Amino acid sequence: MPDTAAAAQFTVLGPDGAPLDSADPRLADLYSYPDNLQTCWVRGNMIASVDGGATAGGKSGALGGTGDRAVFEQMRHCADVILVGAATVRTENYSGAQVPVAQRGIRQARGQAEVPPIAVITGSGRLDPDARFFTHTEVTPLVLTCTAAYDDTRTRLGALAEVIDASGADPDDVDPAVALRALADRGLLRVLTEGGPGVLGLLIAADLLDELCLTVAPVLVGGAPPRITGGSAEVLTRMRPAHVLSDDDGYLYLRYTR
């Protein structure tokens, strides 16, 4: 996903809907986190085609547009930490978050670090130390791995990242609740997860996802791309719509909360 976004014009759908652009403070208000958090609030941000595909050509970024990039960046600017899976880091060629000077001041006023770190969940710890995830970042990334892989991962990546043992009862798996507690212990309560489907499915199955922001791209992809969630666990979590935006390119921006 590109680090900067061009200006975008949005419309809030509904009887009182009014246009706003990507620099309008009201856009930041629409994506603000709850006040006075004591534990992690987990927001998912995903994109899907009209026919439900989470990727085009194997990448979610191929579905995006100007407005999607603006909303993507706004959510990053609000977050304390960005949580992703190892497959997303590899496929999307992730780098560290980029935050403009103006947004850094706003973040400082909220008591946040100028730039949010990226935390990656990886059961194996097998991340390329030469990847942009490690080499193109202003802040030290976090690697959340399991007990079985911790020592090896720390030996290979400990100079590049903070490696954290995030296992629960099973030493071979990352426990998402333990991972979130580790983030909370570091004061990282406003959590933004950008997937992929495996991480989102893991959080949903553990009843840890507080809200989902879904961009619906006005395209059909056909074929058999993945959904925005993965995994074998099936749960039913009731959500309510918080807002719906649209833009001139035909994208919809849906925000649902518990």
Task: Describe the protein's architecture and organization.
- Residues 41-252 form the Bacterial bifunctional deaminase-reductase C-terminal domain.
- This protein has a single domain (37-233), classed as Dihydrofolate Reductase, subunit A.
- Helices cover 26% and strands 22% of the residues.
- It has helices spanning 25-30, 66-78, 86-91, 101-109, 132-135, 147-157, 176-185, 197-205, and strands at residues 9-12, 19-21, 41-49, 81-85, 118-121, 142-145, 162-165, 190-193, 211-217, 240-247, 252-257.
- The protein has an eleven-stranded mixed β-sheet, with helices on both faces.
- The relative contact order is 0.21.
Structure summary:
With 258 residues, the protein is of the alpha/beta class. The chain has helices at residues 25-30, 66-78, 86-91, 101-109, 132-135, 147-157, 176-185, 197-205; strands spanning 9-12, 19-21, 41-49, 81-85, 118-121, 142-145, 162-165, 190-193, 211-217, 240-247, 252-257.
Question: Helices, strands, pairings?
Answer:
Elements: E1 9-12, E2 19-21, H1 25-30, E3 41-49, H2 66-78, E4 81-85, H3 86-91, H4 101-109, E5 118-121, H5 132-135, E6 142-145, H6 147-157, E7 162-165, H7 176-185, E8 190-193, H8 197-205, E9 211-217, E10 240-247, E11 252-257
Parallel strand pairs: 3-8, 3-9, 4-5, 4-8, 5-6, 6-7
Antiparallel strand pairs: 1-2, 1-10, 9-11, 10-11
